[in-house]
Automatic annotation (TrEMBL):
<dbReference type="Pfam" id="PF12708">
    <property type="entry name" value="Pect-lyase_RHGA_epim"/>
</dbReference>
<feature type="domain" description="Rhamnogalacturonase A/B/Epimerase-like pectate lyase">
    <location>
        <begin position="55"/>
        <end position="141"/>
    </location>
</feature>
<dbReference type="InterPro" id="IPR006311">
    <property type="entry name" value="TAT_signal"/>
</dbReference>
<dbReference type="InterPro" id="IPR019546">
    <property type="entry name" value="TAT_signal_bac_arc"/>
</dbReference>
<dbReference type="InterPro" id="IPR012334">
    <property type="entry name" value="Pectin_lyas_fold"/>
</dbReference>
<dbReference type="InterPro" id="IPR011050">
    <property type="entry name" value="Pectin_lyase_fold/virulence"/>
</dbReference>
<protein>
    <submittedName>
        <fullName>Twin-arginine translocation signal domain-containing protein</fullName>
    </submittedName>
</protein>
<dbReference type="InterPro" id="IPR024535">
    <property type="entry name" value="RHGA/B-epi-like_pectate_lyase"/>
</dbReference>
Length: 501
C-alpha cells in the first residue's frame, strides 16, 4: 500500500531518519535555548548565594587586635541581611570593637526589622587564654574595647529576633562591658562552642522585653546553648542569668520570659563573690540545664552554684526548671520558694546526700522534694608512700610507722579535705595487743583504730578517713603502738593521701 509522505510544512518530506534528526536538533535547540537563558538566571542565583556568605575581612576587618573592626563587621552583616540572611564568617584573628556588636533593632513596641536568620561563624574558640595551647592558634575572638558600661554587651542580640546562630568563637567583654553575650527576646536560635569571657555582670544573659511587641506571643525561648562557656568573670559576675525581663520596674501579668531554653554541657564560671551564681534564675521557667558545670572563679568559695530569685512584688516564681548531672561546688540558694524545679545532681562535698534546701523549697507538683544525688569531691593532689621492707614499732605510745608517712605542701587550708587510705599486712608478736591508726600532724584519729591480737599471725588491715586540711603543709601517717612492748610489725603496706576540694 503506498504511503503518504509526511511533511513538516516545507517542501521536503520528513523521513523517519529526518524526523529523528529533526527531533535531535530540536532538542538541542531547546537545550541551547535553555543554556542561553541560564546566564541571567545563574547570575541572579549567584548574587543570592554570594549574599548568603560574607567574610568580614572582605569588608575591611583586620582581625589584628588593634584596628577597630566594628564597622567592617556590621557591613558584612548588612550585606548578608540584604539577601534574606546567611553566614557572616570570621577567619582566625582578634577582632577589636569599640562598641557593642548588635544584631536586631527590636524594642518593647516593635519587632526587629532586620538581621533574622543570620549566622556568626568563627574559626574556633581555642583553649584557655592563660595557657599556650596549640589550639589557641587559629581561633576567633571578638574583643569589646568601648567605654566601661555595666549595661553594655559585647555581642547584643536585640529582638524580637529568630533563627540566629553563633558558633566557634570567643566574645570577650574585656572587663568593660557588663555582659559578654546578651540574648534579648530571641527564639529558635543556636549557640555552639561560644566562650563568653571577662564580663562584669554576667557572661550570658537570656532575657526578654518588658512587654509583647505587636504580633509577638513569645519571649526568649526555644534556644539551645551547646558546649558554651562563661570564663574569666569579674568577682561580682554571674555565669549565666535567665530572667523574665530587662528590668523589674514594670510588672506585667503574663509578661514574656526566658523559657524552654536548653543548656547542654559547657562550664559556667562565676565570680565567686557574695551574691553571684553560676546560674541565676530570675523568674524564668521551663529551662533545662544538662551536663554543665558551675564553678566559682579564681579559687573563690562564695556565691551559689544555682540561685532562684522571683521578681520583686510579682507572683512569678522560677518554675519547672530542670538541672541534671550538674557539677557544682557551692550550694543551691534562693530568697523564697520555687515550684516544680528538679535537681538530679552530684554536688562536691563529703559524700553525704544533697541537703534539704529550705530556702528555695524545691518541690514537685505533688509536694515531694525533687533534689536527688550526693555530694562528691574532686582530687587536687595525690601522694603515696609504700613500704620497701617490713617496719616495726615497739613503743607503748603511738609512733609513726617508718615509710608510711606523707607530708603535703601547698594544701588549701580551711577549704579542702584530705582523704587518707591505708592497707597492709600486720602482725603482733608475743602476747598483748597491737594497734594501728591514721594520724594528722601527730594526732591519732580514734575512729580509725585497728587492732591485731598477739600470736594470731599476719592479718590484713585497711582503713580510710577524711580530715579537714588545717594547714598548708599537713603530715599524714600510719601510727602504731604495742600494749606490752613486743613488736607490732607491718610486713607490707601503703598509704594514699588525696587532697580534695
Amino acid at each position: 500500500m503506498p504511503t503518504t509522505p509526511v511533511t513538516d510544512g516545507s517542501a521536503s518530506p520528513v523521513s523517519r531518519r529526518n524526523l529523528l534528526r529533526t527531533a535531535t536538533v530540536g532538542t538541542g535547540a531547546i537545550a541551547a535555548g535553555a543554556v542561553l537563558a541560564q546566564p541571567a538566571e545563574a547570575a541572579a542565583r549567584r548574587r543570592v548565594f554570594a549574599a548568603s556568605w560574607e567574610d568580614v575581612k572582605s569588608h575591611g576587618a583586620a582581625g589584628d587586635g588593634v584596628t577597630d573592626d566594628l564597622a567592617a563587621i556590621m557591613a558584612a552583616i548588612t550585606s548578608v541581611d540584604a539577601g534574606g540572611g546567611g553566614v557572616v564568617f570570621f577567619p582566625p584573628g582578634v577582632y577589636r570593637i569599640t562598641g557593642p556588636l548588635q544584631l536586631g533593632d527590636g524594642s518593647d513596641s516593635a519587632v526587629s526589622t532586620k538581621h533574622h536568620r543570620i549566622t556568626l561563624q568563627g574559626s574556633g574558640r581555642g583553649g584557655s587564654p592563660s595557657l599556650n595551647f596549640v589550639q589557641n592558634t587559629g581561633a576567633t575572638e571578638i574583643v569589646y574595647d568601648g567605654p566601661a558600661n555595666a549595661s553594655a554587651a559585647a555581642l547584643s542580640l536585640e529582638g524580637p529576633l529568630h533563627s540566629i546562630a553563633v558558633s566557634d568563637l570567643v566574645v570577650n567583654a574585656n572587663a568593660k562591658a557588663g555582659y559578654a553575650v546578651r540574648v534579648n527576646h530571641v527564639t529558635d536560635s543556636l549557640f555552639t562552642n561560644v566562650m563568653a569571657r571577662a564580663a562584669t555582670v554576667a557572661g550570658w544573659i537570656l532575657t526578654s522585653r518588658n512587654g509583647f511587641p505587636p504580633g509577638c506571643v513569645y519571649g526568649c525561648g526555644n534556644n539551645t546553648l551547646l558546649q558554651c562557656w562563661a570564663y574569666d568573670p569579674e568577682p561580682n559576675a554571674h555565669g549565666m542569668v535567665m530572667t523574665s525581663g530587662v528590668t523589674e520596674s514594670i510588672t506585667l501579668t503574663g509578661n514574656p520570659d526566658a523559657a524552654n531554653n536548653d543548656v547542654i554541657g559547657g562550664v559556667y564560671f562565676y565570680g565567686g563573690g557574695a551574691g553571684t551564681a553560676g546560674f541565676y534564675v530570675h523568674g524564668a521557667d521551663n529551662n533545662t540545664v544538662y551536663g554543665a558545670q558551675a564553678i566559682p572563679s579564681g579559687g573563690r568559695t562564695g556565691g551559689n552554684s544555682v540561685y532562684f530569685q522571683p521578681w520583686s512584688g510579682d507572683p512569678r516564681f522560677p518554675l519547672e526548671n530542670v538541672f541534671q548531672n550538674i557539677g557544682m561546688s557551692q550550694p543551691v540558694g534562693g530568697t523564697s520558694g520555687t515550684f516544680g524545679n528538679i535537681f538530679v545532681t552530684f554536688q562536691e562535698g563529703d559524700g553525704a546526700p544533697v541537703p534539704i534546701m529550705p530556702s528555695i523549697t524545691a518541690l514537685s507538683h505533688r509536694g515531694v522534694q525533687a533534689a536527688y544525688g550526693k555530694r562528691v569531691y574532686r582530687s587536687r593532689d595525690i601522694q603515696t608512700a609504700a613500704l620497701s621492707a617490713a617496719a616495726s614499732v615497739t613503743t607503748t605510745s603511738f609512733s609513726d610507722v617508718a615509710g608510711l608517712v606523707v607530708a603535703l605542701a601547698g594544701a588549701i587550708s580551711g577549704s579542702s579535705k584530705l582523704r587518707v587510705t591505708f592497707s597492709g599486712v600486720v602482725e603482733k608478736t608475743g602476747s598483748g595487743t597491737g594497734e594501728l591508726a591514721l594520724a594528722l600532724d601527730g594526732t591519732v584519729a580514734g575512729h580509725t583504730l585497728q587492732q591485731a591480737a598477739g600470736g594470731s599471725g599476719r592479718q590484713n588491715a585497711s582503713v580510710t578517713a577524711v580530715f579537714d586540711a588545717a594547714s598548708a603543709s599537713p603530715t599524714l601517717a600510719v601510727r602504731a603502738r604495742s600494749s606490752d612492748g613486743t613488736a607490732v610489725t607491718v610486713h607490707s603496706g601503703s598509704i594514699l593521701v588525696e587532697e580534695l576540694y
